[in-house]
Amino acid sequence: SILDSEAAIPDDRLEEVTRRDLSLSVVATGSIVPVATVEIKSKASGLIKEIYVDEGDLVKEGQILVELDKELLQALVRESEANLLAAIARRQEAESVSASAVSMKKKIRMDLENLADKAAYYEKQVARYRKLFDEKLIPHSELEAREREFHDARFARESLRSELVIQDARIDAARKAVARLEAEVSQAQATLDRAQENLRNATIRSPLRATVLQRHVEVGDAVSSILQLGSQATLILTLGDMREVFFEG
User: Is the pLDDT of residue 5 over 70?
Assistant: First the structure.
């Protein structure tokens, strides 16, 4: 037989015949790549002051990655706060002027009502004294005195009516000033909100739990804002979610 011949197969080259799976291995070079990657860019512009992570680091969601220089941004916040306080003070002053004008109008109305009553009284006095004068019961000087009182009251009443019209104009102007200054306060508040938002944006945080795949900047580098340059803004870091990966080779 073949097994008994000189060409017999050595025992270590023999294997019992059984049914089993076969596998074929292929050697290839490449990289393990995450399915999801995130490019980190800044909403604020400025110089990089601190970088807290390096390539290969695992970061948590919300973890601080990079800090920009905040000196100028903090100064802008303080300036915006001062402008807001000044605008509020001007609005309060205008509101005080408006309230004072309204109070003055009420006083003029009361004075006008009193003068109307007084003028009506003097008018009756004039009529009575004229009758007495016609009957030669009083001298003409007393009639003239009553007539003078009546004319003075009527003149004062007309003056107050004119003052009432002027006061209405003052109230209208004061209310317009309040509305204008209210708009200034809103604008100053919006400017402060933007300055505070820019200051918060100077602290760059991780949006997800991921691994730092690549760092594109160094301390001292200038960073442009994604809000201004969009896709052309400075790329700071590339993060990858390593929970789901594939082989690229």
Answer: no
